[in-house]
Amino acid sequence: MREFRYHRAADTVDALALLAGEPDARPLGGGTNLVDLMKTGVERPALLVDLRDLPLDRIETTADGGLRIGATVTNTDLAAHPEVRRRYPALAQAVLAGASGQLRNMATVGGNLLQRTRCGYFTAGTVSAAPCNKRVPGSGCAALTGEHRDHAVLGASPHCVAVHPSDLAVALAAFDAVVTHETAEGPGETPLTAFYRPVGATPHRETALPPGALITGVVLPPAPPGPSRYRKVRDRASYAFALGSLAAALDVRDGVVREARLAFGAVASHPWRARRAEQALTGGPADAAAFAAAADAELSAARPLPRNGYKLPLLRGLVVRVLTELAEEAATR
Ligand code: SF4
Fold first, then answer.
1. In the predicted structure, residue 163 carries a pLDDT above the cut 90
2. Which of 88, 171, 209, 220 could form a disulfide with 247 if both were Cys (CB 3.0 to 4.6 A apart)?
3. Ligand 1 binding pocket includes 199 (Cβ within 6 Å)
4. Domains (range + CATH), the chain
5. Average pLDDT, whole number, for the chain?
6. pLDDT digits (tens, 9 = 90+) for 190-203
7. How many Å lie between the centroid of ligand 1 and the Cα of residue 243?
8. DSSP per residue, 195-222
């Protein structure tokens, strides 16, 4: 392991100054991903700026009835918060579907958004000689012809087919969350759906955060009408990344879909907001045939690799199953 310096920031101004003063500085939340990647040489920070003393560990109701979630709120506290569970159940379910209890106790909201892909060619770091454009720009992508069972079927590029591993971010995308940040020049914000950059030819450049910016939190607008749910399919029942997941909210009146929100996880380099499916559903019947047709409309853009085509029927099944459950729940309200 390489030597690095560690500083526990006193406040946001202190943290920003430290991040701005050292090009190889990294903000440290719970460290559940960053420290792992330091061990394999993927991340090689000269300075870690610990954010745990910053006043970013609160969840507050906003003036319009949404929620502001601080960047250092732990996943455990987020999932347990009564207003999150009551108003955004899919969000609490997504958090609880991720990692393990011990990891959720440490992991933070900001760190969750910035976590890196679990593509094995990437995480192996300096132990592996395999090419990886995300780890070593311009070196190639071993996953294209190698192991890509878990990789992207939507929105990928020939330069990288990795998926984003977050469950939380998928639910945030469905709820139209906005990521807030602070820089030396002042505050800023980015919709979650624009927070992750398209892969293109630069898969190592992952987010739209300005250089030196610090994520301060996430703002949720008021919850959409109707029930919501997060469902994750994985190789084992806990402590595993998704093979495919869905965050959905459905508003149904008199058998007709008034509003639908859908976001897929583990299919792309970012949470995939399924807007074609939403459009297909809105104003139509709330039945299994319509749900399947909406999934097909979204997945017509999919370009699976030789060994991950199974994700398409998996996602179609998820959409039909979860929306059927939500329609039934909506009918009892
Ligand atoms: Fe690297 Fe992306 Fe290819 Fe994985 S899919 S080897 S992360 S370039």
1. yes
2. 171
3. no
4. 228-331 (3.30.390.50)
5. 96
6. 999 999 999 999 99
7. 17
8. HBPP-TT-TT--B-PPTT-EEEEEEEPS
